[in-house]
Design goal:
Distance between the termini of chain B: 35 Å
Number of helices of chain A: 19
Distance between the termini of chain A: 31 Å
Structural class of chain A: mainly alpha
Oligomer: heterodimer
Strand content of chain A: under 5%
Number of helices of chain B: 20
Largest sheet of chain B: 2 strands, antiparallel
Strand order of the largest sheet of chain A: 1-2
Strand order of the largest sheet of chain B: 1-2
Shape of chain A: globular
């Protein structure tokens, strides 16, 4: 019984908790964070349950009010959406656990609105993933975006400005997407994704359809921070509170990437995408420019959060490049990278939160080898996440790059292969730079002995999520054959 | 008895030692006991595989899938066992020597040192026993990471620069190897090391084969010190001497040449190498490297740097032997792995003993030291004469087979290269011996022989060189092993 309604329950959980939190928050302020944890925990449990039941008995379609599409609205819990839902809810749960101690420090007195907004943002993200309707997607997109703008604005002094910039660019992106949906609706007369997939081949050469596709790719490209539409991202992630960056960085752009997967591979299908112009190649080229641009900019940064933000631009490029390859290995690599990057980035942003909590800054030039003594576990997690980002086996990051590389070779696309390899090296440059500072005494400094530090590790509620994610990278690395086996089955062709 | 678990245990035993080493950081004697114990057990385990290897059989174990269709699999074939015996056997000598050296030189962070060393050995044995290219890459990258802390051990400006250089070279190499593996997998559908190669069923155009070969060459050539990508090796001499001894004369560089043989004999296959003319490329590169490295060795006053260039030259002996693509040349190359290992480790041990005892590292300072360090210099003489290929040392035996190999292949130039290089070897080693024995030294009055912890290992490895020269089959039937390995690589044709 529960299986058939599960997609709705996941979304409703967040609706419920986004109301509960203000209610209880006015009465007892210290309850809001546990409530948020409970809400996201429930959603995470439901998504794990849902994914297992998907594996056992196939996709779940839930019709709201019992109205079947195309008249009614449906939620579709298939392999693709189920996988994304699972990833974002588990990561969000850990991030919200992690925020317990750092939240009151970075946004004192704003906990209640903060967590209520976090629930709304999660509602938006989950809705975007689950809905089977292109217009409905736009509605959820706006819910998540509005919540994200507000979440980002609750941050440092410059945060509201960064949020405003994001709002303007993001709204433009959303509008372009909506325009595209409008075009498609006039041509096909439906908004349901499954319906549309069946009807589109009849209008393959129609200018309106091609224009719609381009509008949607550009609009969503803004949300996914696809180069060159990434401008809003670095400032937003840098100035937002640590838990916001940890929540939105691994999730927000992924969800946008999801709809690109959905549109390009499932609704249109790659033949249709490339019917008039080689759109998938263009998207792939943009992604690879983004990969290199993000990595190079990351090297140039001296502030860790900003570095991670640029690194996100680069990593989202991997995912979209894998999508543009449109072959099974590229697809599996891209989806595996969705998981890997969510885990790695959440872990890294948590680490930057841990350091901000204790040191009050994350300026890389001020890092020294006392960190090794002061924060042994945080730094061990950083090392694992960094090595995974560089993509060395047996950690998770290696395998997504391996499948992406196989995908590029399959297509004979040597340029993309070179981009993947070069970017790994650039990753090594900006991560080993930090590792060197943290694990070795500064050779040019006067002091002979390594700096001493008393152990000053962050509290358990912060350390546990950080290390769980770091351990997760090892586990994913070793289990990737199982995961990729599942992902290959989802591939639509 | 079922041996299939033994290769796995042989890899894991030194990894298991790591936590014990870390936990007993406050008790140096206990900590070193773990290292020695792990070394002995590892050597015993590897030896237990020898009878099977001598019968020409392999011990295989499939653990789990790293990627769909690509298992993490170990295969202790004769060649792997051959290499594993050398690496694990010499680890025991190095462990004793390290104790003497690290304490004598008063080096810091010894726990990190011994722990990294143990991980390196696991990785090396893993490389020896990898059954397919993906497993191989996993251990190959693990070796890179585990040696990094050893290279930068002193944490001086020089060693950190050396460490960066090391990472830049080896990480790039790793990526090229990944690309090469991806291409092989795409074109052949398998990555299992097979005597005779993987390309027997497929017929690829010349340029594709050339690209794959060059990628491989970049991937394994860095660790094998093939010019012009040898640059990291002399810089890495900034590491403590036992590191140079084991890693840069045995484990790391030998993993490189081991990989060359795996690639030539087990991925391409000797027939394919010959029919695509790939062997000739390798001959030219190796020949040039031998001559240039020998000439550069002359120019070095720093003893360790001279040894480093000598290593570069001798590694290419092995590569040259392989590149000849004749059974005798292959055998000579394989035997030179063992021969160079025992001799070069002796020389590095000597250099370290001189450094710890007399604080001298330049050749121009070595006048008359044979008077105070007779045992050390005797061992040095044996080692250097062996490398010059003077009978009855083991360097002569392998060189003899290399020479026979080039005659067998009707090639005169490699023979001339070998002869010239032999003379150059004499040329750059003899002055050292001449200074030590026949010149009058200064400031040596208060010094005696180095600590027995160093002298006993270095003299033992020197004796090993003589014994292997006189009776190549005395221990472990090395000679028969080498010739049967070489034979399996040619039976196909």
């Amino acid at each position: 019984m529960i299986e058939t309604q599960l997609p709705a329950y996941i979304a409703l959980t967040f609706v419920l908790f986004s109301v509960l939190i203000p209610l209880f928050g006015m009465w007892k302020k210290e309850w809001v964070q546990p409530l948020a944890v409970a809400g996201s925990g429930l959603a995470a449990t439901l998504s794990i349950y849902g994914f297992i039941s998907y594996l056992n008995s196939g996709p779940i379609r839930y019709f709201f009010g019992g109205w079947e599409p195309p008249i009614g609205i449906e939620f579709v819990y298939d392999g693709l959406s189920g996988f994304f839902v699972l990833v974002i809810n588990v990561v969000a749960f850990l991030v919200l656990v992690h925020s317990r101690k750092i939240g009151p420090l970075e946004f004192p007195g704003k906990e209640m609105p903060y967590y209520a907004l976090a629930m709304l943002a999660m509602l938006g993200f989950n809705g975007m993933l689950l809905t089977g309707d292109l217009f409905n997607f736009y509605v959820f997109l706006e819910i998540s975006s509005l919540a994200s703008y507000a979440l980002i604005a609750i941050g440092e002094k410059q945060a509201p400005y960064a949020a405003l910039r994001y709002l303007i660019i993001g709204t433009a992106g959303g509008t372009l997407y909506l325009l595209g949906v409008g075009f498609l609706y006039t041509v096909t007369g439906t908004l349901n994704m499954i319906d549309m997939a069946a009807m589109l081949p009849m209008y393959a050469e129609s200018t309106a359809v091609v224009a719609a596709l381009i509008l949607m790719i550009v609009g969503i490209g803004v949300k996914a921070a696809l180069f060159p539409m990434h401008g809003w991202l670095p400032d937003s992630y840098t100035y937002a509170a640590s838990s916001t960056s940890a929540l939105i960085a691994p999730i927000g752009t992924k969800v946008a990437a999801y709809i690109l997967f959905r549109i390009m591979l499932f609704i249109f299908g790659i033949e249709l995408v490339d019917a008039v112009a080689p759109l998938s190649t263009i998207v792939g080229v943009l992604a690879s420019v983004g990969i290199l641009y993000g990595s190079i900019m990351a090297i140039a940064q001296t502030e860790m959060k900003r570095m991670l933000a640029y690194s996100s631009v680069s990593q989202i490029g991997y995912i979209i490049m894998g999508l543009s390859l449109a072959n099974p290995f590229g697809f599996a690599g891209a989806l595996l990278h969705v998981l890997n990057h969510a885990v790695m980035k959440a872990c890294l942003f948590m680490i930057s939160g841990n350091l901000r909590m204790k040191e009050g800054h994350t300026d890389i030039s001020l890092f020294d080898d006392s960190y090794r003594k002061k924060y042994p576990w945080t730094m061990a997690s950083f090392t694992i996440a960094a090595i995974s980002m560089v993509g060395l086996p047996p950690l998770a990051g290696f395998f997504s790059k391996w499948y992406l590389a196989l995908g590029t070779i399959d297509n004979g696309n040597w340029l993309f292969l070179a981009v993947i390899l070069i970017s790994s090296l650039l990753n090594a440059v900006y991560f080993f730079r930090i590792l060197e500072k943290v694990y070795m005494k500064n050779p040019s400094s006067e002091q002979k002995e390594p700096s001493d530090g008393v152990r000053n590790e962050v509290s358990f509620s912060m350390l546990a999520p950080t290390s769980i994610l770091a351990m997760g990278l090892i586990v994913i690395g070793f289990m990737n054959a199982v995961i990729v086996g599942i992902l290959l089955d989802i591939f639509p062709l | 008895m079922d041996l299939s678990i033994v290769p796995l245990l042989a890899i894991l035993v030194s990894l298991f030692a790591v936590p014990f080493i870390l936990l007993s950081s406050k008790k140096p004697n206990l900590r070193e006991t773990w290292t020695i114990l792990a070394g002995l057990i590892k050597f015993g385990l590897v030896l237990s595989l020898l009878p099977t290897a001598l019968r020409g059989e392999s011990v295989e174990i499939h653990l789990f899938d790293l990627a769909p269709g690509l298992p993490l699999a170990l295969n202790a074939d004769p060649f792997g066992v051959f290499f594993a015996i050398i690496a694990s056997g010499l680890w025991i000598f190095t462990s004793f020597y390290s104790i003497g050296y690290m304490r004598g030189a008063g080096e810091g962070k010894q726990t990190r040192y011994f722990a990294s060393f143990a991980v390196c050995l696991s990785a090396t044995i893993g490389i020896a026993f990898s059954a397919n290219l993906l497993t191989f890459i996993l251990f190959y990258e693990m070796l890179t990471l585990a040696t990094y802390p050893l290279v930068i051990h002193k944490e001086t400006e020089k060693s950190i620069t050396a460490g960066r250089k090391y990472l830049a070279f080896t990480l790039t190499a790793g990526l090229l190897l990944i690309a090469a593996a991806g291409m092989v997998y795409t074109y052949t559908g398998t990555l299992d090391f097979t005597p005779g190669g993987l390309f027997t069923e497929v017929d690829l155009p010349q340029h594709i084969m050339l690209i794959i070969f060059i990628l491989f060459l970049g991937g394994v050539g860095v660790k094998a010190g093939i010019m012009p990508i040898h640059g990291w090796l002399p810089s890495a001499m900034a590491a403590p001497t036992p590191v140079s001894a084991l890693l840069h004369a045995v484990a790391v560089v030998k993993s490189g040449v081991f990989a060359v043989i795996r690639v030539v004999g087990f991925v391409f296959g000797t027939d394919v190498m010959a029919s695509y003319g790939l062997g000739d490329i390798l001959i030219v590169l190796a020949g040039t490297t031998i001559i240039i490295a020998s000439l550069l060795a002359f120019a070095q006053d720093n003893l360790k740097r001279r040894l480093a260039y000598s290593t570069v030259g001798h590694l290419s002996y092995i590569v040259l032997g392989v590149a000849l693509l004749t059974p005798l040349g292959m055998q000579g190359g394989i035997m030179h792995i063992a021969a160079h290992a025992t001799m070069k480790i002796t020389l590095f041990f000597c250099a370290g003993a001189i450094y710890v005892n007399l604080h001298r590292e330049n050749i121009s300072q070595l006048n008359g030291i044979a008077k105070v360090m007779p045992w050390t210099m005797a061992a040095f003489t044996i080692g250097s004469m062996g490398l010059a290929g003077i009978p009855p040392l083991n360097g002569f035996v392998s060189k003899w087979y290399l020479a026979l190999g080039s005659l067998e292949g009707d090639m005169i130039v490699p023979l001339i290269v070998l002869i010239i290089s032999g003379l150059l070897n004499v040329g750059y080693f003899f002055p050292i011996i001449q200074r030590a024995y026949f010149r009058k030294g200064e400031g040596l009055e208060k010094h005696g022989e180095a600590s027995p912890f160093m002298v006993v290992p270095l003299f033992s490895t020197a004796i090993l060189s003589i014994l292997f020269g006189l009776f190549p089959n005395l221990f472990f039937s090395f000679f028969d092993l080498a010739s049967s390995i070489a034979a399996t690589l040619f039976t196909g044709g």
